[in-house]
Amino acid sequence: MAENSALLKESRDGVLILTINRPNALNCFNMPLLETFQSTINEIAFDGSIRAVVITGSTEGKNAFSTGADLKERAGMTPDEVRYYIRTIRDLFTSVEEFPKPVIAAVNGYAFGGGLELALACDIRIASSTAIVGLTETSLAIIPGAGGTQRLPRIVGIARAKEMIFRARRITAEEGLEYGLFLEVIEPVDLMKRTFEIAGEIAKNGPVALAQAKYAINKGIEVSLPVGLAIESNAYAVTIPTKDRVEGLTAFREKRKPVYTGE
Fold it and tell me: Please, what are the domains in the chain?
């Protein structure tokens, strides 16, 4: 495992695990962490050895995925510095959402504000049964500023998102499962095992196909069905001339597991 500032990186079988590592601050985001996170996302976006990414929080001390912005740092910022911070964290989470590989959030504890917004930017969210999450910004007289007002209603519905944000309400993992926020809720001891299991299943599939499927879903959900179908058609066309498509058909015919190279 290699450490870079407050972000840990571990690669196993095509899956990269990124661990937010500020346990004494409940894994909240300060500017150095945001900058390190963004540079890491930029570096690995086109690394062919990485097929899927898992994001989680350090479990040293109190369990927290991330409690959002570092409010101690924020208290010393000028209004202009706050604007720059918000722009930086918003751009980072958009980079995660648009990352050309599937990203899974293993929400292992508290996820408030920006912490939940990071999870919302991921493709799949799996939670520990002890996780408690919420967009609590209105209790601080601000609003979610890193995508929460846009991504939460798209996942749980407008009425539920408004209720959660207006009340600054914290919900349990089981409530999140009921709302469709989480795919699964797992006991803490098994969270990373289950997350890695799902990530491993994803990593075995064609990298180009995964990237194009993610692109088609993300872009298609925002448009009319006819336009979405056109997006899907174009995304499918990208996979046709690839070596991986031929390998998939050959492996199926030969009754063996395919070996994909991302070409």
Answer: 2-203 (3.90.226.10), 207-253 (1.10.12)
Q: Give the number of other Cβ atoms within 10 Å of residue 13's Cβ.
A: 11
**Best CA proximity match to 25, nearest among 69, 88, 87:** 69
Q: How far apart are CA 133 and CA 156, in angstroms?
A: 14
- State the catalytic residues: 69, 114, 117, 137
pLDDT tens by residue, 204-233: 999 999 999 999 999 999 999 999 999 999
pLDDT for 45-81, tens place per residue? 989 999 999 999 998 767 899 998 888 888 888 999 8
CB-based burial, 66-104: b 16+ in 10 Å, e otherwise: bbbbbeebbeeeeeeeeeebbebbbebbeebbebebbbb
